[in-house]
Amino acid sequence: METPPQCLRQAVQTETANLKVLWSARPDPWAYARRRWKDLLIGIPFTMFAVLLTWGTSGEFTTKSGKSYPSIFFLWGCMFIILGCWILSSPFLALWRARRVFYVVTERGALIFNCTWSLKIQSFDVSGFGGFERVSHGGRGGDVLFQRTIEGEGKNTRITEVGFLGLRDFSEAEQALRQMMEARSK
Known about the structure:
The structure is a single chain. The mean pLDDT is about 85. By secondary structure, this protein is α+β, with helices and mostly antiparallel strands. The chain has helices spanning about 10-15, 30, 40-60, 70-100, 170-185; strands at about 20-25, 100-105, 110-115, 120-125, 135, 140-150, 160-165. Helices cover about 40% and strands about 25% of the residues. It has two domains: about 5-25 and about 100-185, PH-domain like; about 40-90.
């Protein structure tokens, strides 16, 4: 069992004070951020286009009469550069967030602690626990998912997965969850 990050120690102690902890762990930061690395493939050309557009509207590409574009085009381009930088930074923000997440399985349920901007505790009570899905990413690492929410349709579909993401060894988490569910059935 691992110790929680400093920012979560008090919350974990409070939530698990009178409970038997079966398993606890922190996610592997690189595995946790795995879903965000594809954003770089979108962010690089987006940001390059925004920089080129802004550079052109700043007067670098002038009309034949020598007049440049209005400065509102420059400001419009800067907005897209900022958006592109945000897209490019999303994998690195996910790495930072991973260091502020902690997972716990107790005899009464599963808990996900997250302290990125504010403390967020997701609790999955054993009485309402419907099971889990194990997703392997090769070797012993992977995810243990409790919920999958699908929003929108077509190209606007957004899938949100909730569970223990980016585990170094999902078999220990799976064993603890099965032990928790067996204790419920007794």
